[in-house]
Write a structure and sequence with these properties.
globular; alpha/beta; binds nicotinamide-adenine-dinucleotide; 259 residues; Rossmann fold
Amino acid sequence: MTNADGLKGKVALITGAARGIGMAAAIRLARDGADIVALDLAGSPWNELHDEVAQAGRNLLACEGDVADEVTWEETMARVRAQFGRIDILFNNAGISGPACPLQDYPLDEFDRVMRVNCRGVFLGMKFGAEAMRGGSGSIINMSSVSGIGGGRSLFAYNASKHAVIGMTKVGAVELAEHGIRVNAICPAMTETAMMLDLEIGKNTDEIAALRGHFNAMIPLGRYAAPAEIASVVSFLASDAASFVNGAAIPVDGGLKAQ
Ligand SMILES: NC(=O)c1ccc[n+]([C@@H]2O[C@H](COP(=O)([O-])OP(=O)(O)OC[C@H]3O[C@@H](n4cnc5c(N)ncnc54)[C@H](O)[C@@H]3O)[C@@H](O)[C@H]2O)c1
């Protein structure tokens, strides 16, 4: 499925693009016609994304660095300016889940680590991304989560960080509107990526089936999302089809938060 050339001539920067939802979004936006700037941690495997973007006939600029590090953004934007001159779309997707444990046991250093990537990383992305959108229009899509809509157990910093992403989205939507930049957040539920599969490490087949059954039962559609299903919402928000959508936090959750 594509947005048939709907993003032709656009440049999209996607963080956390070396795998998971970020890679699915990069592939989708390339198929929609955008050139891709992919940012992920040093040592990330780029082969699959490189092949997919080439197959779509688009250009890929793969950059390495930590989204929470200001130098990463300075260096990435310098490379963007040299190759493309600007960006039109920014998907602030990179994020980490941190440990799962009760508040009383939640380690302070883990709290800081999760907030650093999930909040500071998005803040820097918005700041540098808006600056690089010089064409009088642009779309920023921030990755929140169903954890950014309601409460829950065990993922204290993750939950807090994903709420903060929605707050940053709303401020950005108001402040950047005068520059023609729309800012929205997406809030997926469980999606088939390494982040979810990591929860299955060390468990036997029965335990994995029980865990999956537990999560599936929470979702009215009864299953995890495929990364491509999240990417198609990113594609919509990036496109002119969403020209009046600004400041929204959109659940992409199979009905989880409708209950
Ligand atoms: N998988 C899910 O069920 C789910 C649900 C809701 C929201 N999300 C959110 O979607 C986003 C992507 O998740 P995913 O499931 O694809 O995860 P993933 O772990 O499969 O991929 C995350 C990518 O981000 C990169 N990354 C992590 N920290 C980084 C940093 N500091 N700088 C640059 N890159 C960094 C990783 O190297 C990796 O390539 C995250 O923000 C996550 O919180 C995921």
